[in-house]
Amino acid sequence: MSEWVFAIKEDDLKEEKIKVIKSGNKQIALIKKDNKVYALLNECPHEGCPLKNGTLEDYTLKCACHNWGFDIRTGENVDTGEYIDIDDPKVEVFETQIEDGNISVLI
């Protein structure tokens, strides 16, 4: 069953920066891009590297470990480079909402 969970104050998330929150056993990376907030699991499906250490290029978050790229809007892999060893290298994404200056994530 999904529920909305308070994540962070909107003022605490700067444009194109990554903040990680914990909810239960999940670490979720929050990214503000063009005044919209995206949320994705803070774990690359390749070897579990934290995506918070990656770099954001437009809407692609590149994993710092092996440079795999993921679309922050969909979680889809956009560039696996030379390491293609899993069938569906996708990152779980979560719906977000901003209400009264608070960012919440649907978990």
TrEMBL record:
The keyword RNA-binding does not apply. It comes from the Archaea. Its cofactor is [2Fe-2S] cluster. This is Rieske (2Fe-2S) protein. InterPro entries: Rieske_2Fe-2S (IPR017941), Rieske_2Fe-2S_sf (IPR036922). Keywords: 2Fe-2S, Iron, Iron-sulfur, Metal-binding. GO terms for molecular function: 2 iron, 2 sulfur cluster binding; metal ion binding. Residues 5-105 form the Rieske domain.
